Amino acid sequence: WFRDFVFSKIGEDWIFLALLGIIMALLSFAMDYAIAKFQTAQVQLFTVLKGSPFVQYFAWTGFPIVFIIFSTGFVHLVSPNAIGSGIPEMKTILRGVVLKEYLSFRTLISKVIGVATSLGSGLPIGKEGPFVHIASIVSTILSKLIVTFKGIFENESRNSEMLAAACAVGVSCNFAAPIGGVLFSIEVTSTYFAVRNYWRGFFGAVCGAFVFRLLAVWNKDEETITALFKTTFRVDFPFDPQELIAFAFIGIVCGFGGALFVFVHRRIVDFNRTHKRVSAFLMKNRFLYPFLVSLVISSITFPLGLGQFMAGELTQKQQIDELFSNTTLGNDPSATIDEENKYKPWHRPNVFVTLGVFIVMQFWMTALAVTLPVPAGVFIPVFTLGAAFGRLVGECMAAWFPQGIHTSDAVINKVIPGGYAVVGAAALSGSVTHTISTSVIVFELTGQITHILPVMMAVLIANAIAQLLQPSFYDSIIQIKK
Amino acid sequence: WFRDFVFSKIGEDWIFLALLGIIMALLSFAMDYAIAKFQTAQVQLFTVLKGSPFVQYFAWTGFPIVFIIFSTGFVHLVSPNAIGSGIPEMKTILRGVVLKEYLSFRTLISKVIGVATSLGSGLPIGKEGPFVHIASIVSTILSKLIVTFKGIFENESRNSEMLAAACAVGVSCNFAAPIGGVLFSIEVTSTYFAVRNYWRGFFGAVCGAFVFRLLAVWNKDEETITALFKTTFRVDFPFDPQELIAFAFIGIVCGFGGALFVFVHRRIVDFNRTHKRVSAFLMKNRFLYPFLVSLVISSITFPLGLGQFMAGELTQKQQIDELFSNTTLGNDPSATIDEENKYKPWHRPNVFVTLGVFIVMQFWMTALAVTLPVPAGVFIPVFTLGAAFGRLVGECMAAWFPQGIHTSDAVINKVIPGGYAVVGAAALSGSVTHTISTSVIVFELTGQITHILPVMMAVLIANAIAQLLQPSFYDSIIQIKK
Known about the structure:
Chain A is mostly helical. Chain A is about 70% helix and about 0% strand.
């Protein structure tokens, strides 16, 4: 009786969404934990073996190869539906196309384990696309498991409303970004949408983000509920209006860069398919391509080789954290010794070269890595890439105007290169995915909104350029699959 | 030729939106300037006349009466379409109903002058609704004036697309909140909407917000581009998870309070209409009702009378600024003498009583003021009211836990009452208007996103309650007008 009362009063939709949010938060937290363990294990293994470079090399490259091969095999055996990002397919489903088996329990298992291992490899692969897919599956399964929710999915339009909300939950559990998550999921999956879906999405997303961050507090990772990649930029004078020219420049370059990325990715896929020799060679053994790609990428990031010039020993999370850092990575006389040590990976040989090499290498490595037959998102690697580019521009500006631009007063307001990194990250990820909600996601990720106008400006410019030149990354995949 | 080239490449829509954003920003800035001058003039007049309380009283009450009477007369003569908020009417227009003369040049003049004078009176009236209306008129006129843009408004669906974008520009120029402005305008005006409108809205909104804030820099009000009501809350430990109970409480009360506000407002309108004696009395002279309302409200806020217990001598902007302030308004031993003096208005007799009186009085005064036959929005007064309530809860929490809640460590993390004010402001304005984008607006207004989860939580709770009990304020007006 009590259950009936509660359900009738609050509405089954809301309980359903809260439950979905909580489950996804738990899943996201558990997977983040596992992935972080895997990624640091590779670095630790490398450190332990110090002194014997060859063993180090084999350990460094063998580690990702094993993970990727496992992921490839597992996904192939359990459910090949789990391959790729998942956002293009969700877009197709929300348009009304029925993709058989795409939202089954088998696919869920395949995707969860597949993502955990493919990200654990340390290759530049993201988890936000797969998470949208996972959230959609969980919502479908949840509705089937619990009899009370059955009504939701009997009605087809209601079904797609709930799936749209589930996509939002997926993004927001990933970044702890409820607002950006909702907007991003709307932009990538819908063309027209109902305002009441937006409500549902928000509710689920807040539940998800809330539990996700609360878990971090309980796990003693954080002292309290805060942003995922918290920044501490100066609030009173975030940037001078004249710096907007540099921000606009970032937007322009990221616009072209994003279009180029989509183009390069499609060329790689086309190349593998159309060249008969290549495709025959790759068909011989399904593990050959993953093996080669992981070998090449991990050889390049090997910290004793080329990797030393591109901060290769850092995990994705560390990279973003440090690109968003508040101090100047260049020669900053005010940096403490702790900071000096922390940012050392970016100083070999100096910050401009390191960032330059990082950008060039990360660009094609990401485009290559997302063609692997494993569950793989594109958002976070592209985000990192954009951050690196923004940081490079920011470091140049800081070197150019060591005393800041606004020097008419007695107060010196230095250039904040971290702010440029935030702008770059939003602009490039926005231009690759053709979304402007990435600007909201960066505010939620960094916990600071000081750079709102530069971010919005750069994202709009980048989008305008990228949309003229290429379809979005997700639409490009839909075209390829047709 | 050059013009043709530019237009064909960039697209006339974008130039149109940029132009609209710039015009609205200039208008918003000029009106803010005038309104601020009017409002401080009242306070200055009061200060100058110190020593003769009777003269002070007549000056204090006469000032708003003159303004409101002028506004009533002007609006009546030029165009009565300018009366009220404008959002309900825009919602009706966007649904396809043609309201004659509603978007004419006469109405524009009437609305601009009417808003400037009615807000200049210092009564609790907002300018965001009128601004949505003004932006829509400007966009309509702009398309008629410039031949090149004519194409935009020939097609009817395109016409409404552009109007929807103009609404977003209106909100964002007002608060310098591009993201929140777009979402707010979507929520209050649409039920279904196309994702590409959202793009247009963003572009116009960013242009508007950018120019609006840049004007403040050029005018030397601000050192650089920053948020309108910038806060400086502690970033490293914004709140303890246990404080979420208090935040949820704010959400619950604001939900009921918002519904009550809509109810009270409708009752006042109904009362004026249905009671024959009252309506006959009011019909005698159209200036009688405005006169009485302004007299009552300004008598109550008179700083030597009841006004001294409710910070009556502060303007709306000062009230919000101080409610969002970082220090505790109660007895804060760490407050400097400057701060003590600044927050003095809240200390007579003490902060709890002052805030309590302020909330009760502001509540019915706002509901009364928005029934006046002048251009009058409801958002900012309700926002202030919510901020005061949140602040009250925050001050109680600060008094209850003087050492903060999280005392297990050596570090003392005090309760931040300003954060509660932000939560309350978003929750109450969200529940009155039935929107969740107020949460985004507060982040953009304050320039801080530290309290994202409490804000989202409280806004969702408040909305859920308010939606069960009453229609939104705007829908309520639509019902009344039918």
